[in-house]
């Protein structure tokens, strides 16, 4: 027994893979023919069974002199050697990656040291200049002034080459130098397992972000990928190269026109007219740098850019350096001026945030290149037998179709249906949309007259976008109507289009999520959703009525600062062909910059929050003001867009159905948002009233009693005599009722549901809205002239006029009434109330 164990140990050594024991007990080297036979079997089955080994000996006479046990040992050692080889290869790869990351970190450290030295010098210079009073102003100007780009003549190659060389120098100073004061992107620390090193600008014109990382692709391949911006930048609608010519130094200069989608219905889209310069540096690095040529007058014709706001791209681009052991080190810089002045004030943080640009452009570019690298090396495994390129195409088509629906460009065939201006849901029609795939035009749905899109946007307060999107994904039955899903799915199947005569179906409410693939950090998931349904017609009882949806879900990581959260889906046939027509619908939630609550305004915040709580459970109670927690006004913009194919004679019916359905979805999402909000909109966790603030019910009583006292009429119906009914009836009143504080700059402290709808805001957000912001110049003059009258006689009637919502939409009203709200002692004026009668959006 001991001898057998000893023999096994010896035979299991590294050299025994080439030797075996013969009949006399001596080690004999395997012949080349024997090794070749064993290797053939190993290639087919690395771990053959005992029966397979015995069969091998019988079929191969050259192995007949070897014991089955020795064959087993050979396969064991062969598997061990293969494992060691793979482990050695993996360790070499990790070592190369760590070496490259170490090089990157050392370069980053050198850059930071230079930046510190520069700041120390500037600080010393400032101190010296401050002691010279006469030169203070001039010296300060000289310190903070940044050399501006002097426009060259862009009409000839020599002028363009001069601009290109200047762009290259400025880009390199941002990518590897100290031209921009970079700070680490919050929540993204560098490390061996991270995608790269990410930074955002701390103080510079516009918004800027930078990334650098190691990718196992050659520089030329990376340049090819990154220059194809629409393939990885989901908000890029179109990129067209108008002119391209050699630069004379081995590089190329291109004049590029780029169009970007608007992320929401509340803002216009952006476009760029840029010079793109591709060249090779002396050290072998490839560079692609880009910048805007001039103002809005340059580029394509005005007709082509009519629906866009011309934005500016400051020197940006890509620096790709080859690594010694293979692969490349990438530096990416995006520096933009998105002209935030052109959007409503509430949306400006979205266009002034470097974090947002970092997430959707800079980080997305590096992740996409790494994704391609992993797919090329075979590291990525996808289900359902789909190739990675096919799945990427599906994701891109879903995202692009959703962006097309939100933006509704005229040159794509979209037009707005006639409406009276008061509609909260926008209905757009596209009668020229082709639902065929590029590869198989026979799949075109020729019987569909067009596509109808119902879309809307709203402001959310203190609702984490990632949490809301996860809930919408996992609990579809809480907001979706499965019969509407069935209608849309049926309309995409040739020969089954009928509205409203869809086969009667009962849906169980259950859904099955079947994953298809995901990106390298799981920031985007592609999946198929099966909604289970059963026919209610007896003859079809055994026919499946399941609905299948292709869906992408992104931005579900709560720690991703500035990341947009999306849930986009489209009905598909159960056969799911690669060229299936897609009509995407879904949700997009974009976070806006948070800001701390102002201590001075904390009273207002608590009043509005507790009023909402009281509407749910009854009157609030006074609590100590010391229990009020610190809060964050975490805002986000939710955009909803649903698309419906329609037949020519059913356009009005489908439009009515779509409008009602989207309103129902909005109501459901608002209910879900309130339920998951951590801000305390429910009384269990809500902030307490401060000592000086009235209860919600008391405030409602003061409003109604003051109206009756000053005007001599009842604001509410006579049934509302007391209790909770006063508060609820005031909240549900058809006219917009708002209250503002009596300060030097009045701010709103309360609004009923109609008032919130008119201002397009939430109760918590009222603290940021001043009275003068909602009126135009004429309205402000009328209000100022009647203010004395209100304070003297207690009320005033204001004529018909126009005001403005927080989203920038104009509102008309037939009449407005202003009155003083006095407290119970009838001597203390608490606030000013306004009632806008018969208001509507223009």
TrEMBL record:
It is found in: Nucleus. Residues 91-122 form a coiled coil. Keywords: Coiled coil, Differentiation, DNA-binding, Homeobox, Nucleus, Transcription, Transcription regulation. Residues 153-381 form the START domain. Residues 21-85 form the Homeobox domain. Residues 23-86 bind DNA. This is Homeobox-leucine zipper protein REVOLUTA-like.
